[in-house]
Amino acid sequence: MTDALLIRIAEALERLAPPPPSCADLAAFPAYVWDGRAIHAVEAFAPVDYALLTGIDAQKGALLDNSRRHAAGHAAHDVLLWGARGTGKSAAVASVVGLLQAEGQDIALMQCAIDELASLPALFALLRGTTRPFILFLDDLGFEEQGVGDARALRSLLQGGTAARPANVRLYVTSNRRHIVPRHLSEQDDPINPRDVVDDKMALSDRFGLSLGFHALDQDAYVAIVGGYAAKLDLAFDPLEAIQWATQRGSRSGRVAWQYVVDLAGRNGLSV
């Protein structure tokens, strides 16, 4: 077989199986996204000001303290942020990273889509190549009955598995469920060791050393959040109108408050 033929075969094989895409410089950017195959930089990382997140002071304090320890290379927990939708769970994760970066801490956010959980060992292998602290953000995590196997796999990655997360990575996970996987009253009636059924479902949430609950807002807290956002944009607002906005949407939350302020800004000819 001639050298020319070997070269042609090698080139054909490369076209059939191209090399993996290159990953972004892990020291150069404030935030990244993992797509299951490669790490992509997020250059325009502009989270909400941490101070604007109102009505969740205790949760913010605990999250900031834990994140500061991780940024400094000290012992820190994986964190589960659970509770009602729109209450600031996701915003708090991005904002706390932005706050630490503004303070001069060399920490970065890495977001991974929920449907890419199976690829986390590959991501962990890449992150072991740097000493920079990372917060791996899994947003809106929840497993149905058929996904309990995936929950067990994630449990292994958090603690004790052969492909467990590296020391410079902590997982920050948001979920609408306190225990991430669904629970039912019928569990108590399971004839085959019902306690084992409950323990297995709670085992994933138990892997998080810090669990922070986010609850639905009362009216005063909702109006206070609207006021904080409006003040940031130098906007006057009518509290009754803000309350009516929330009533029409069937929810009082930080997300609804921000949506009202965006609408108010638009009516006043401002951009946000």
TrEMBL record:
PANTHER family documented for this protein: SLR0930 PROTEIN (PTHR42935:SF1)
Record-given protein name: ATP-binding protein
Matches recorded under Pfam families: DUF815
SUPFAM superfamilies, per the entry: P-loop containing nucleoside triphosphate hydrolases
Coiled-coil ranges from the UniProt annotation: none
Superkingdom in the source lineage: Bacteria
Keywords: ATP-binding, Nucleotide-binding
GO molecular function, one term: ATP binding
The keyword ATP-binding is annotated on this UniProt entry: yes
Source organism per UniProt: Sphingobium cupriresistens
ATP-binding found in the keyword field: yes
Listed InterPro entries: DUF815, P-loop_NTPase
Chain ranges passing through the membrane: none
